[in-house]
Automatic annotation (TrEMBL):
Pfam families assigned to the protein according to its UniProt record, in alphabetical order: HTH_7, Resolvase
Family: Belongs to the site-specific recombinase resolvase family.
UniProt protein name: Resolvase
Source organism per UniProt: Arthrobacter sp. J3.49
Annotated region described as Disordered, given as residue ranges: 43-66
Keyword DNA-binding: yes
Amino acid sequence: MDLTGFRSLAEPWLDTTSAHGKLIFDMFASLAEYERSRLSERTKAGLAAAKARGRLGGRPRSMTPGKLETAKQLRNEGKTLKETAERLSVSVSSLTRALSRNDVPEVASAAA
């Protein structure tokens, strides 16, 4: 025998201590679970459709291919990471990450 239940003072129909109230409560819980599943399906379908159109999620990268080429040139000229980052208006960490992601060897000394 279940001695616990929920009885709302504001909504008289919400009373899990009775069979009728428990049925209604369970129906609402099932509908909420169904809607949550449908939302997840729609979200996944939308992300897949966006990916198929070539769209990527998240924030755009600060290092564009053009900036990366400029960074390579500046580093080959002997510019430091800090000087290169300032010239490209990016942070030193973004520059370092982009260079390592693109297998660019360390040419100049890193004076950050």
